[in-house]
Design brief:
The complex is a heterodimer.
Chain A lengths: L13 H6 L7 E2 L2 E2 L1 E2 L10 H14 L9 H21 L7 E4 L2 H16 L5 E5 L8 H10 L2 E5 L9 H7 L4 E7 L11 H10 L4 E4 L11 H4 L3 E5 L10 E5 L1 H6 L10 E4 L4 E3 L13 H17 L1 H20 L4 E4 L8 E6 L4 H9 L3 E2 L1 E3 L4 H7 L4 E5 L6 H18 L1
Parallel strand pairs in A: 3-15, 5-6, 5-7, 7-8, 8-9
Antiparallel strand pairs in A: 1-2, 4-10, 9-10, 11-12, 13-14, 14-17, 16-17
Helix pairs in contact in A: 2-10, 3-10, 4-5, 11-14, 12-14
Chain B lengths: L1 H6 L2 H8 L12 E7 L4 E10 L2 E10 L2 H14 L4 H16 L7 H4 L15 H15 L6 E2 L2
Parallel strand pairs in B: 1-4
Antiparallel strand pairs in B: 1-2, 2-3
Helix pairs in contact in B: 2-3, 3-6, 4-6
The chains are: A alpha/beta, B alpha+beta.
Bound molecules: pyridoxal-5'-phosphate.
The site of pyridoxal-5'-phosphate (PLP) has 15 residues of chain A, from helix 4.
């Protein structure tokens, strides 16, 4: 394992961090819980839980409509959360942040508005071969409707995007590139700045799926230069049911509405309806007010801990886990990109991942097994499924050890 | 590890390691494919009839220990049976792996009773039942891919 160098900027007090996540203290069948399924969803810290409870206990009112104090306060809290998410992603202004249910809805929103209005027969959308199903299926739907074509840029055996091959797919028919920032099944961190640069050279807008990246590394949408970026609250130590779409103002303004209803309109008559200004145009109906406020608390929490400390801690942990798992007889890591973060997908010779999952669960270790909603990745690598341990800021080397010990049990049982 | 041994019984581990009736019958009368998208398990069954009895059957595919052993033990359990008996066995096996009070049936299930432990692992029921659903589809002559999702 790599040693801690003096130049490392910040040290994470893991014990103190864990103390703020009540769920982590539990045991499973008498064994301490080692929660290593963070790529599926992260646990929630006390400040997020408190914010949600406080909102419902003392702050609940509908927003953007009441003249009374409570409604105004709820509106301020909701719009304040938008400001926090905007700052977290370094959007140019809060109006470029649209609240959604999750990352999936953010992508569907862009597919159904931007995609639907821009795609025609023979046009193309380019993704990568390592996309989550949520960055494949929305494009298939709109492509099918419009007679357009979805193309996927390949990746190497190690799980690295073949950027030249992606570039070769770009052309006059390409209407959008939609690419994952960090792969949830391989851990690969894609060179999204470079992809944006290549696409923009040909005037092609880029959507980046940041569902995995956003809790592992600082995201600056302006530095990346992307046109859209989606995140999901439940993987940001925040509530389920809330996510955000960042869109550059010029693009959002040109996009037709997503869903119709209250809040997204400026005026309605039976003859003609005019749309509300950004971002409300894309938020029809009463939104997940509590969720948005909870997400605001979650990004405050992350910012409070600081990405310097988070990145340094997770990097050490990943190096430790990579070494520990590589030493397990018969284990092969799936996804060994030079630039990767916090995810260890693996297969064990002679044992199906599903059996691994059940056996390590009996040792208190929660990992994910299966295709991780990335079936094309499994097909490309010729494995039916993998076991996946995914790390977050609160994980420890002891938990990695617990996983390794549990894998020894797998061997014991399966011989 | 006593709990896990209830699930991963020696018989199951043995059939996982060396599955019986593995392969494909070229001159099959009936066949069906099964798929469990959650774990990526894929299974294909071919079957030969003599009258209304199962003369021979094979399975092939990839999957976890539970699904492979279940397919293997199933092929042993149904060979020589009539299609009606087979449907009854399907129902009994289904009850065995899903119903806490199904102990009474174990005697009639013979070796298949080793899967009783599965009922304590709800996430694994689909693994144990995949082969049976696929067999059911084959004898009912349905040729769409059976999915346990
Ligand atoms: C890379 C990636 N994209 C998108 C998603 C979808 O997130 P959600 O289900 O919250 O919409 C996930 C979640 O697993 C993911 O890992």
């Amino acid at each position: 394992m790599s040693s801690v160098t003096a130049s490392e900027p910040a040290v994470l007090d893991v014990a103190r961090i864990r103390g703020q996540f009540p769920l982590l203290a539990q045991t499973v069948g008498g064994k301490p819980l080692a929660y290593l399924d963070n790529a599926a969803t992260t646990q929630k810290p006390q400040p997020v839980l408190d914010t949600l409870a406080r909102y419902y206990a003392a702050g609940n009112a509908n927003i953007h409509r009441g003249v009374y104090a409570l409604s105004q306060e709820a509106t301020e809290a909701y719009e304040g959360a938008r400001g926090k998410v905007a700052a977290f992603l370094n959007a140019a202004e809060p109006a470029e942040i649209v609240f959604t249910r999750n990352a999936t809805e953010g992508i569907n929103l862009v597919a159904q508005t931007f995609g639907r209005s821009r795609l025609g027969p023979g046009d193309e959308v380019v993704v990568s071969g390592m996309e989550h199903h949520s960055n494949i299926v929305p494009w298939q739907l709109v492509c099918e409707e419009k007679g357009a074509r979805l193309r996927a840029a390949p990746f190497s055996d190690a799980g690295e995007l073949l950027v030249d091959e992606l570039e070769a797919l770009l052309g006059p028919r390409t209407r959008l590139v939609s690419i994952v920032h960090m792969s949830n099944s391989l851990g690969t961190v894609n060179p999204v700045r470079r992809v944006v640069e290549l696409a923009h050279r040909q005037g092609i807008p880029v959507l980046v799926d940041g569902a995995q990246a956003a809790y592992h590394m600082p995201v600056d949408v302006q530095a990346i230069g992307c046109d859209f970026y989606v995140v999901t609250g439940h993987k940001l130590y925040g509530p389920t049911g809330i996510g955000a779409l960042y869109g550059r103002r010029a693009l959002l303004e040109a996009m037709p509405p997503y869903q119709g209803g209250g809040d997204m309109i400026a005026s309605v008559t039976f003859e003609r309806t005019t749309w509300n200004e950004l971002p409300h145009r894309f938020e029809a109906g009463t939104p997940h007010i509590a969720g948005a406020i909870g997400l605001g608390a979650a990004v405050d929490f992350i910012t409070g801990v600081g990405f310097d400390a988070i990145v340094a801690h997770e990097r050490r942990l990943l190096a430790y886990a990579t070494e520990a798992l590589t030493a397990v007889p018969g284990l092969r890591l799936v996804g060994t990109a030079a630039d990767k973060a916090s995810i260890l997908s693996f297969v064990l010779e002679g044992v199906h991942p599903h059996d691994i999952g059940t056996i390590v669960d009996a040792e208190g270790v929660a990992i994910r097994t299966g295709h991780h909603c990335t079936q094309p990745v499994m097909d490309r690598l010729g494995v039916p499924a993998t076991a996946r341990a995914s790390l977050a800021m609160y994980n420890t080397t002891e938990e990695v050890d617990q996983l390794v010990a549990a894998l020894a049990r797998v061997r014991e049982l399966f011989g | 590890m006593s709990d896990l041994r209830d699930l991963y019984q020696e018989v199951i581990l043995d059939h996982n390691r060396s599955p019986r009736n593995f392969g494909r019958l070229e001159d099959a009368d009936l066949h069906a494919d099964g798929h469990n998208p959650l774990c990526g398990d894929k299974l294909s069954i071919t079957l030969k009839l003599a009258g209304d009895r199962v003369a021979d059957l094979r399975f092939e595919g990839s999957g976890c220990a539970i699904s492979k052993a279940s397919a293997s033990l199933m092929t042993e359990g149904v060979k020589g049976r009539t299609l009606d008996e087979l449907r009854g066995l399907f129902d009994r096996f289904h009850r065995l792996v899903t119903d806490q009070g199904a102990a009474a049936d174990e005697a009639e299930l013979g070796k298949l009773a080793v899967f009783a432990g599965v009922r304590d692992y709800p996430a694994r029921v689909k693994c144990a039942i995949l082969a049976w659903h696929t067999l059911r589809a084959a004898v009912d002559d349905r040729h769409e891919v059976v999915s346990t999702e």
